[in-house]
Amino acid sequence: MLFKKSQTIGLDVGSGYIKLVRINETKTGQELSLFDFIATPHGAIVDGIIEDRSLVVQAIQELLAKNKIKDADVVTAVAGHSSVIVKRITIPKMSEEELSKSIKVEAEQYIPFDINDVNIDFQILGDSKFEAGQMDIILVAAKKNVLNDYAEALETTGLTPVVIDVCHFAVSNAFEFSYGVLDNECIALVNIGANSTNLIIVKGGYSLFTRDTPIGGNVHTEALMSDLNLTLEDAERAKRGLSVEGISPEQVNQIILNSSEEIFSDIQRSMDFFRSSISDEEITKIVLSGGLALTNGFKETLAERVLMPVELLDPFKNLAINPKLDDKFIKDMAPIGVVATGLAMRRSGDK
Ligand SMILES: Nc1ncnc2c1ncn2[C@@H]1O[C@H](COP(=O)(O)OP(=O)(O)OP(=O)(O)O)[C@@H](O)[C@H]1O
Ligand SMILES: [Mg+2]
Predict the structure, then answer these.
(1) Span from the CA of 299 to the centroid of ligand 1 (angstroms)
(2) Ligand 1 centroid vs 217 CA: distance in angstroms?
(3) Which of 62, 228, 325, 342 is paired with 115 by a 20 to 30 Å CA distance?
(4) So what's the pLDDT on residue 146?
(5) Which atom of ligand 1 is nearest to the CA of 236?
(6) Local structure of 261: helix, strand or coil
(7) What is the 3-state secondary structure (H, E, C) of 288-348?
(8) What is the pLDDT of residues 102-133, one digit of tens each?
(9) Checking DSSP bridges between strand 84-92 and strand 8-13, what pairing results, if any?
(10) In the prediction, which pLDDT does 79 show?
């Protein structure tokens, strides 16, 4: 072959971990050929914004070197209530072309940022069920400076950023890839990372509602550190169920349970808001992803609190796994790889 075909990777740059996923096309279908992650240096990413570029670049370079990636096209995502807005809105019916021209005007009232500071995208969902002559769209607005920061950091690592997506879409794409488009079920996808919760309510391939809140697994880490006087490292060990001198698993579980209250109420509040203000669709279950999903007992306790089934999202369900990969690591850590998998699935045709 004269020209090396460039590879595409999905890279989810979170405040807790930077996750890398690569999916290859094989004769028999799609195969997961890489899944790995590295801890994000403390304080380098705050609320979806790069605070310390050189630390982020160093960590990404380390992750790439470990996985022998020299150059690649990369798809990444931004999230966070202070830099991205994803909203379902109802506007007068018009063609996609017309909307492209008028989207700035239509969007202005829904965006709490200066319209000139954001990149705007939209997706037409279809005619409004409630108002004649109106249609529903998903409006996406992301701050240009935040997008540029990510693109520049990635370029510094030698990668070529080809798409900067929004975390919500990556989660729902990964969900649909694994479980299909469910026309009759309204499902809450809840992705909980170190410092954020993305909640996306989907039905039949569309998101009916999305919400980002700045709360995540760090509430557990902080509670363990302050209640048991632990270092950050020991609190992280305790969370994973590993032994820490002088601390019993019961103590750890109790602190995790108590500090989960804040997260449970946040999810409950979002679902209550959806029910009271957005739709009378009944949410049938929660599908959970992100690092917090790995916390022992969290899924079960959440199910008791919200009175509905809670399942873990396995983004690798419909992928063959390359035999060189560690099957157990992949199965155990799958919920952490959801966003990166949704990103890696984007093909050049989507750009
Ligand atoms: N095995 C585990 N058991 C319990 N918690 C874990 C485990 N592994 C990771 N976590 C927790 O998951 C969180 C990181 O998850 P994730 O990688 O999804 O977050 P992130 O995407 O980096 O964060 P954010 O999106 O909020 O910036 C951390 O709070 C970490 O302590
Ligand atoms: Mg995340």
Answers:
(1) 14
(2) 6
(3) 342
(4) 93
(5) 31
(6) helix
(7) EECHHHHCCCHHHHHHHHHCCCEEECCCCCCCEECCCCCHHHHHHHHHHHHHHHHHHCCCH
(8) 999 989 999 989 999 999 999 898 898 888 99
(9) unpaired
(10) 87
**Two structure tokens written together for 143:** 């701050």
Q: Which of the residues in the chain have pLDDT under 70?
A: 1-5, 347-351
Question: How far does the centroid of ligand 1 lie from the alpha carbon of residue 209, in Å?
Answer: 24
Return residue ranges of the chain for CATH 3.30.420.40.
8-82+143-219+257-350
User: Which residue has its alpha carbon closest to ligand 1 atom 1?
Assistant: 240
| Residue 79 CA, closest ligand 1 atom number | 25
Strand partners, 137: 89, 124
Q: Identify the CATH assignment for 8-82+143-219+257-350 out of 3.40.50.2000, 3.30.420.40, 3.60.140.10, 3.30.450.40.
A: 3.30.420.40
Q: Give CATH for domain 84-142.
A: 3.30.1490.300
> Using one digit for the tens of pLDDT, what is the confidence trace for 1-25?
455 567 899 999 999 999 999 999 9
Residues of the chain with CATH 3.30.1490.300: 84-142
**Cα of 192 to ligand 2 centre, how many Å?**
7
| pTM of the complete model | 0.94
**Test site for ligand 1: of 45, 51, 336, most ligand atoms within 8 A of the Cβ:** 336
